[in-house]
Amino acid sequence: MKSFYRNLLLGLAVLLTAPALAQENEGAFFDGNGGITASNLPTSIPLSERKPILYNNPRADDIVWQQVVYRIVDLREKMNFPLYFPEVASDNRQSLFTTIFRLMEEGKIKGYEYEAEREVFTEATEVKFDDIIQKYGVMVSYDIDSISGDTLGSSINEVDIPNKDVVKYYVKEVWYFDKNNSVFQVRIMAICPKIYTLNEDGQLEGSPICWIPFDSLRPYLAQQEALLTDKNNGARETMDDLFIKRKFASYIFKVSDTRNRNLIEYNIDADQAHKEQDRIQTMLINYEQDLWEY
Fold first, then answer.
1. How many domains is the chain partitioned into structurally?
2. What gap in Å lies between CA 90 and CA 193, rounded to an integer?
């Protein structure tokens, strides 16, 4: 009889312990196979299921003021390193351009022709991925059938993606005041990678690749980690977080006005252009503060 009760108690202990262990291992930092979890973001949701940060989509009639601003994001600035590194994908991370490149390769997002005067996102202005790789000389590897000689497929190796040559981005954003919700906000509309290649004179020359509607890119940026600092590998956010929370460095090069000119066109030198950048930025900040001034 004592043996029966002893076995019964052991069985109950096992039944009660198993769920606790399963719960403890769920979302654990160590995966038990000599590695760690793919993401240690402060959330219980797996990285593959992360969604973009939601924001309000106001009615057009509620926007009583707006200003379209064009910025340049220079990835050589330290604050923007999380968007540029790693140069070759590693540690569950890849650069912003590698992310864009792979998404276009897979047909998940579309790019549109860059024009200095306007942005038109229609089928007529769509940029084909094959045209991009041909224009910038991206190496493509082909799988050939050894018997028939037919091409079975193609692929682009990680090291052949011209990530190192994309050091700047154009960003189009709109600042607006929503009277219905009484909020002053900014929203990124499109992003354009700028690649630098050697011209005929042997000098680096920048070339905008294409405009990409930012909303089409956000679901994938929300699933892409960015390492914010070398001092703490756990300080990670998604690339969507970096843009929506404005954790990037940039400077204004153009605003939408009657003449549709960039700052260089109507400022005589760099110093005057910098002053104009500061004036525009101050204007945006002051507009919000003046809304609540009595």
1. 1
2. 21
> Residue 101, exposed/middle/buried by CB under 10 A (0-12, 13-18, 19+)?
buried
How do strand 63-74 and strand 212-213 relate by DSSP bridges? unpaired
The encoded tokens of residue 256 equal 């939408």
Range of the domain at 87: 55-291
Asked if the structure places residue 40 within a domain, the reply is: no
pLDDT at 20: 47
Cβ contacts of residue 65 below 8 Å, gap of 6+? 176, 177, 287
The C-alpha atoms of residue 71 and residue 191 are separated, in whole angstroms, by 10
pLDDT of residue 22: 44
Give residues with Cβ within 8 angstroms of 192, minimum separation 6: 114, 169, 170, 171, 172, 208, 209, 210, 211, 212
- What the block records as the tokens of 151 is 């091409």
The pair phi, psi for residue 83, each rounded to 5°, is -90, -20
For 78-98, what is each residue's pLDDT tens digit? Answer: 999 999 999 888 877 899 999
Distance CA(39)–CA(224), nearest Å, equals 10
Closest by CA to 227, choosing from 41, 10, 8, is 41
HSE (side-chain half, CA atoms, 13 Å) at 91: 11
For residue range 218-255, what is the model confidence (pLDDT) as tens digits? Answer: 999 999 989 888 887 777 789 999 999 999 999 999 99
pTM of the predicted model, to two decimals?
0.82
pLDDT at 177 over 50: yes
> Which amino acid is located at 216 in the chain?
S
Is 189 part of any domain?
Answer: yes
Distances (CA, A) of 227 to 115, 134, 181: 33, 32, 34
Task: Give the 3-state secondary structure of residue 123.
Answer: helix
> Is 49 a domain residue?
no
